[in-house]
Amino acid sequence: MMKVEGNVGFTLYERGQIETATNNFNKAHIVGEGGQGTVYRAEIDGTIVAIKRCKEIDESRKMDFVQELVILCRVNHPNIVKLLGCCLQFEAPMLVYEFVQNRTLHELLDFQRNRSCHVTLGTRLRIAAESADALAHLHSLPHPILHGDVKPANILLTEELVAKVSDFGCSTIDEKTQVAPKGTPGYLDPDYLLEYQLTAKNDLYSFGVILVELLTGKRPLSKERKTLTSMFKEAMTDGTLIKLLDSDIVNEDNLRVIHQAAVLASQCLIIPGTARPEMRYVAEQLQQLAFADEVQQDPQPPLVLAGLRFTAEMANTQQGNQIWPPLNSWRPYLTTPGLIAARSDDLTSTLDHTRTKISARAAVEEVRAKRFPQRPQRGGGGGLHRRTRDPNDGGDMEAGE
């Protein structure tokens, strides 16, 4: 392994490490495939990681790609999958992430729809709050990161059902760039489809669809070709929302919270996007709703917003014997002093934000400890109460579609 010039904490893995870890990209190691690449479960230096084999990068994009990777490697947030480094000794770059050992929100919602499990309103709102907090963090960085493909399949869940936003390695950092719409039908912002301009408000729209999905238990696209967002807006206008909601989470005690969450979702879906709130506002509102007194909390709550454990440390960066140097086509992009995107003030800002968030989360944990004085240190299922065991329950990371 080697470090990128400029001491920016960016690990370059050797080709041999990647090939050994994936057993030469053996299909048995594949845990997910999507439009942006294939994900393999692997082990490097005793640590389980997820290796994403990206699509080939155009020559004109390589400098931007490396600069963006440096920024992404510096993102530290308990609800964001950590990017550890990459390997550039293949024509297509290999991204190395922390491995999240469980399912995705997409699968959890499918289990709920099939009545294979019961997911409480408290758990749903908490997952939404954690995901919104992660996106708000990305949007607030010195170089804001726009996800571009926010959907349940890109929200991973740990064993305690802590949310981890993933698959933003090919996201856009510059809002001014016009790009052809990429994403998933049902979650794409109509503004993005019309203007080809990716902004933070597009992520907000996609998140709004997820919030509606959590409240109703329904898929964004139905066989009747009527979108969930259109049905939701009609129900909000007609006063018939109660009929659209998932009956598993509705009771007389929590209707106020559900209504407020629905109003928040409506704000995320406003057209035009300029009228939508900021993601930070949405995250703060959801945090309050998730822990409102009338919301049923899990008997054994999982690790929640405190999430003080960062589940992956940076990979070992000690210089080793480099048998496979980076491909010549990538070498010029690894020697720019400082890699203009990796300025010291970026790191300082990120650390300051992390300290602030940890203090806030510690306060939340203190309140929760008073409400659940007998709570075990680790929850047994984190709000997911299985009724029957799903034969496909394997628990590996899955790439976005």
From TrEMBL:
Residues 25-291 form the Protein kinase domain. The keyword ATP-binding applies. Residues 368-401 are annotated as: Disordered. InterPro entries: Kinase-like_dom_sf, Prot_kinase_dom, Ser/Thr_kinase_AS, WAK-like. Keywords: ATP-binding, Nucleotide-binding. The keyword Nucleotide-binding applies. This is Os04g0372100 protein. It comes from Oryza sativa subsp. japonica. The lineage of its organism: Eukaryota, Viridiplantae, Streptophyta, Embryophyta, Tracheophyta.
